[in-house]
Amino acid sequence: MLKVYKPTTQSRRKMSVVDFSVLTRRQPEKSLLVKIKRHAGRDKTGQISVRHQGGGSKRHYRLLGSLQQRPGAKAKVTQIEYDPNRSAFLALVEFADKQKMYLLAWEGVKVGEEVVAEEKAEIKPGNRLPMANIPNGIPIFDLEIQPGQAGKLVRSAGASATIVAKEEKWVQVKMPSGEIRRLLKNGWASIGQVSNVSHSAQRIGKAGRKRHMGIRPSVRGKAMHPDAHPHGGGEGVNPIGLKYPKTPWGKHALGVRTRKKPKYSDKMIIQRRKK
């Protein structure tokens, strides 16, 4: 759900933010925090290797766990929290022995509900079980690529995948992109959809909000001089003067597939995603 502000200024006019009324706590669990060292897009030599990064609000990293670490042990949701490092919300759960753990929150999570990771767990949001035991068509998230390695796929806000078929030791999973991919049947996944579904619909509204996120300004190639960008140069407002747009390093910028050919995981892709 989005919250829209009254247009008191031009930057506020079309700004929207996610409604955080579903969250139950502002302060994170101190025992699960670690410091983050910032690099502002620079590599070990001090050169910028990733452009447009730097600044931003200070953050601590929340250590995420997985219910698989405690198979069969029921965990009770005690808090639903904001995480500045990812688009999804976090659920703070507590086990019977008072151990606490952060999990990726699922859509519709409520304080007080219990979740568990078991081979034959109930099919309800938040529970975690092997994909071999999950019925086809049920929304799932936080999928494992290698069993025992913890979830790697479908973890961003509002994302979910579905199992479309099962064969021998494989399951065919339809990813959020539309790609159908084979994964091992004994890999685990969580039931439900990742929380904060409205994340992608919010409008930033002003440049300052981007700076708080640690994103620095990006300059159009057309506005540069010809030594700095292939689109640069010319008098006044000119087209790029090329058959196709290029990156600052002279490579195709639009419509070109960047996936390596051949790649070791090509055999796992049943159907490519739509462009």
Write the layout of secondary structure elements.
Layout (H helix, E strand, L loop, with lengths): L1 E3 L11 E3 L14 E3 L24 E3 L12 E7 L8 E6 L4 E5 L9 E2 L12 E3 L8 E3 L19 E7 L2 E5 L5 E5 L3 E4 L15 H6 L56 E3 L4
Antiparallel strand pairs: 1-2, 3-4, 5-6, 5-8, 6-7, 9-14, 10-11, 10-14, 11-12, 12-13, 13-15
Q: Quick one: CATH class of the largest domain?
A: Mainly Beta
The counted number of beta strands is 15
CATH superfamily of the largest domain: Nucleic acid-binding proteins
Structural class based on helices, strands and sheet pairing = mainly beta
CATH domain fold name of the largest domain? OB fold (Dihydrolipoamide Acetyltransferase, E2P)
Distance between the termini: 28 Å
| Topology order in helix (H) and strand (E) letters | EEEEEEEEEEEEEEHE
Total of domains: 2
Oligomer description: single chain
CATH architecture type of the largest domain: Beta Barrel
Count of DSSP H/I helices: 1
Poorly predicted runs are none
| Strand content range | 15-25%
Shape: globular
Main pleated-sheet profile: 7 strands, antiparallel
The helix fraction, in percent, is under 10%
Q: What is the mean pLDDT?
A: 93
Q: In angstroms, what is the radius of gyration? A: 22 Å
Q: Strand order of the main beta sheet, please?
A: 9-14-10-11-12-13-15
